[in-house]
Amino acid sequence: LHADVSPLELTIEHRETEKLIKASGVPSVILRNGWYTENYTAGIRAVLHHNAVIGCARDGRISAAPRQDYAEAAAAVLLSDADQAGKTYELAGDEAFTLTQYAAEIARQTGKPIAYHDLPEADYKAALIAAGVPEAFAGVFSDSDAGAAKGALFNNSHALSRLIGRPTTPLSASIADALSRASVA
């Protein structure tokens, strides 16, 4: 989101890519996908094992959506009869959530006592590395969580839902899907 002004480390390469695309002179449209719900739900087994969600986002609101929603938006832009050249879309989920709310939804759906534990950024990064996440990715995730605490993962434009012609997939549905995959695998 907002790659042109975002403080997140992850946006540096996005900002540079956008500059190169614009400098090429090729007609283009920029889709700035927000955070993916799967960035959290991919770790749902660990959450269930430890009865905890960890992060460093404090009470920052995260406007995430699943990859499928973003893919549908890309298809809608590609298939649109309207001229899309030069447009930039800030795409994000309709329903922003905090990690406390994320943990509470997992608890509600599983009946297990799941809580969110907010850590200092360095401790969160260290915990990710200790869990086997490569250091570079741990840095991106901890920086992004810290950015969420400052509003960097929040957007209420509803551009994504307008492009796909329906509300974005709610967090509760993404969690239910992840829980069904966690129990089968």
**Strand portion:** 5-15%
Radius of gyration, in Å, reads 17 Å
**Overall residue-averaged pLDDT value:** 96
Helix and strand element order: HEHHEHEHEHHHH
| Multimeric organization | single chain
List segments where confidence is low: pLDDT < 50 over at least 5 consecutive residues: none
| Shape descriptor | globular
Distance between the termini: 33 Å
Strand order of the largest sheet: 1-3
| Count of helix runs | 9
Structural class: mainly alpha
Number of strands: 4
Biggest sheet details: 2 strands, parallel
Helix content: 40-55%
Task: Record the SSE blueprint.
Blueprint: H1 11-24, E1 30-33, H2 38-41, H3 44-50, E2 52-55, H4 67-79, E3 88-91, H5 99-110, E4 115-118, H6 121-130, H7 135-148, H8 159-164, H9 171-184
Parallel strand pairs: 1-3, 2-4
Helix pairs in contact: 5-9, 6-7
Structure description:
The protein has 185 residues and is mostly helical. 51% of the residues lie in helices and 9% in strands. The protein has helices at residues 11-24, 38-41, 44-50, 67-79, 99-110, 121-130, 135-148, 159-164, 171-184; strands at 30-33, 52-55, 88-91, 115-118. The strands form two sheets. It has a two-stranded parallel sheet with strand order 1-3. It has a two-stranded parallel ribbon with strand order 2-4. The protein is globular, with a radius of gyration of 17 Å.
